[in-house]
Amino acid sequence: MAAQRVVEVPKAAKQTSRVRVAVRLRPYMVKQDDKGEGACVRGLDSQTLEIINWRNATETLQYQFDAFHDEQATQQEVFLSSVKPILPHILKGQNASVFAYGPTGAGKTHTMLGGPEQPGVIPRAVREVFNLVKAKEKEDNAWDYSISMSYLEIYNEKVLDLLCPSAQDLPIREDKDRNILIPGLTNTPLTSFSDFHTQFLPASLNRTTASTKLNQRSSRSHAVLLIKVVRTQRAVQQRVQTGKLYLVDLAGSEDNRRTGNKGIRLKESGAINLSLFTLSKVVDALSTGGGGSGRVPYRDSKLTRLLQDSLGGSAHSVMITNIAPEYTYYFDTYTALNFAAKSKQVINKPFVRETVTTPSVQVKRSREEQEAVGSGEPQKKRLNVRKKTDPEEPIAPAQLHSSTDPSVLSRLMALEKLLMGTPVKERLKLHREIQELKEKQKEFESNAKTLEVSGNATTGKVTDSRLAGDSPLFRMHLPPLQRKQTTAARSKKQQAVVSPLHVVQLCPVVKKPPTCPKKEKLQVHSELPDGKENVTAVGWESHLDKLVLDQSKHKILQVLNLGTLKDLKGLQQIGDKKAKLILGWREIHGSFTQLEDLTQIEGITTKRLSSFIKANILSTMGT
Ligand SMILES: Nc1ncnc2c1ncn2[C@@H]1O[C@H](COP(=O)(O)OP(=O)(O)OP(=O)(O)O)[C@@H](O)[C@H]1O
């Protein structure tokens, strides 16, 4: 019978570890922004960046992360500051993960993979793992180390083995100790870095990529490289520790109006956006302590299921959010920054994965080993008995790293969304709730400020304008970040800094006449009786600033693609029947690429569509 026991985890290893978040801004690419409007985002220092506030082009929103890498940052700098520090953990039986997140074309693959001239995080990290193992072996010969790799992609919700491309969709399983396993996935032993190179490069070519309007070689899948380090003690009573390093290049979040995706690209895009949406829900749940319900929706997509160990699980995680400076990317950048800010609240609980076996007794192989088909895994007898963790257990509340309470902010954002499509009489109620949340937020900010003053708040997210005068950032005398040739009215207030998710009244920059079109809004009815179309005045859009108009349309599209039945019914001119038809359409076709797709729904003609768009946009303005 096998003798086994889980070794007591050292106290230090039980410490929680926050997901580190770095943001990398890629250089400006003129081609992608023919209008030459300049950058909409820029760095202020090694942790802080600012982006123009879409609600008021004369203001900027400021974010602070663990690291900010500007457009000049080299691959080496990104690696040294954001990735290298977490690697030693995997030699101690802990998990680590690095994943690149961001809109399509913002530089994720460049960061993770790079090229022969500028190798990215993946080759650098693997080389470093070999260096660390070598140094350990020299320092102490009581342990044997072995390194192996697996490489897979998640494409259209299928798990495909990149080291064995003929393999079919692989299942993701969980063993009794809550370890995530992929039976049948190739696990190749590595003897040196050049060995890795030989295996990895051809496998990378198996990854699914295609050309979209925004990126000639756009990754259409999430690529996950797994480097496993197993160390075995040479003593009679063998201790075996297994550490895993996940290096993940996520597919880009996509706005199909801009990617120009159609057909198969559109289907891929639906799968990509769905899994990234689930990822954001997981992060949301983790950063708000399980959203109150204690359930983290890891199982809702293959990506999150696989990353279960890397987010809120047992790993030391680093998320590198890639962003692009061009105006065309503005809303993607804004969304990515808010997602990244949320990820900072996720707390991981690292622990050592160690087993002890008595070699004289025949050892029963663990399920993981049994399932590692053709793995060529180190042949040492070992059991991966891991300390039991419950990935769906309620999460400890996140530490206060920010002057912005994430739960309040999420709720505010959700309310804003709701407000957009709520009939006038119901808005009063929502307004009241928003007021209350604002109060709560104010209170939270003042608490955070007190913490900052006492030197505790070292990694806050957003700088409040009231703190701006004290901030070193404002001693830099940078010229205001403004869109070139903007149609926005100039305000007397220059470079004010606001908390990004404050609910501010959305008032369009009006060209002529200079008033908000409130009256027109009042003529909008909530749902038109069948057959009677409310044909609205021509040219109303010309009164609104294009940025505001685009943002409003984007918001409507978000509700159409992500909203529940209730959210959909909250939209102007959408009743129960149409809301259900929209849900049905989504089931079959995936996401709406543009609002015009609504005409594919029974009963929505072009005229009705324009009436619908107008009603919903104007109702937002009137709040
Ligand atoms: N820091 C950088 N320095 C120089 N070029 C960069 C940088 N980041 C990205 N690029 C270039 O920008 C283009 C798009 O980058 P990349 O393919 O890495 O984007 P991506 O985020 O992986 O996109 P997708 O999600 O569509 O795969 C590439 O030509 C890449 O070489």
Question: How is this structure best described in words?
Answer:
The structure is a single chain. This protein is α+β, with helices and mostly antiparallel strands. The protein folds into 3 domains: 4-28 and 77-371, Kinesin (3-Layer(aba) Sandwich), CATH 3.40.850.10; 404-458, no CATH class; 505-623, AF1531-like domain (DNA polymerase, domain 1, Orthogonal Bundle), CATH 1.10.150. It contains 16 helices and 21 strands. The chain has helices spanning 75-83, 108-112, 121-139, 193-205, 256-259, 263-287, 302-306, 330-343, 367-371, 406-420, 424-453, 518-522, 546-562, 565-569, 576-589, 606-621, and strands at 4-6, 17-18, 20-25, 41-43, 48-53, 56-64, 67-69, 95-101, 143-155, 158-161, 173-174, 180-181, 188-190, 209-210, 218-219, 222-233, 238-249, 315-323, 347-348, 354-357, 496-498. Strand 16 and strand 17 (238-249) form a beta hairpin. The structure holds adenosine-5'-triphosphate. Adenosine-5'-triphosphate binds next to helix 2 and strand 15. This is Kinesin-like protein.
